[in-house]
Each structure stands twice: as C-alpha cells, then as structure tokens.
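task queued by scheduler; priority normal; single chain, no ligands, no partner chains; default sampling; output format set to structure tokens
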Amino acid sequence: MTDLSDHEVDVLWDEFHRVVNMTSQELSTWLRTRDASPVTEPLPEQAGSEAGRHVLAILQKRRRDLTDDDVRLMRKVVDLIGSLSDEEAEPEPADQSRRHRLMTLGHDPLKPS
C-alpha cells in the first residue's frame, strides 16, 4: 500500500483517531451545516471541503481498507491539527474561525478529551 511499514501505519491510524475527536456522525452533520445557506443545502456527499469529506470517508473505513491517498491525508491532517491546536492553552470561544477550520478536519477543540 505505502512505503510505510504496517507498524508505522498502525501508529498513524492511532494518532489520526486521537486528533480527529469528532465522530463520523458529528463531522457529517458539521460539514452539511457549514455549507448550508438560507437558500440551498448541498447534497450530503457534496457537503464540506474535499479534505473534510475525505476525513469522513476515512472515519468510516477499517484500517485494512486504507489507500495510499488515505494515508497521505491522515499524515497531513495529524500535522495540520497539531499546528492549528495549541495543546497547552484552552481555545478562546471567540476564535470561531480557528475552531471551524479544525472542525472541518474532524477536530473540535472545545470537545472534552
């Protein structure tokens, strides 16, 4: 599948599921809500960004069904969430833009660990 060993993919899988703290149901609802407007609402499979939809697809997969693209996105999401999240500080409720960017990747900084 990838140039990573099975152990490295297992570690990435665990890390991805640690930082992506929203369930597939929560992420799906968020992506649809985020894209809805007073006039229109996208079809569920078209809601959200491409990365958000891909994260949702990964959440609905088994570890053994991952593709190379899945592994690449998982690595990118772990890195992005790590760079956007400050593990030391509580997010400010007023920082909705940052929170919404993280939620689009499946991480709600206000959700209890």
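post-processing summary
- The two ends are 32 Å apart (CA to CA).
- The first helix runs from residue 6 to 19.
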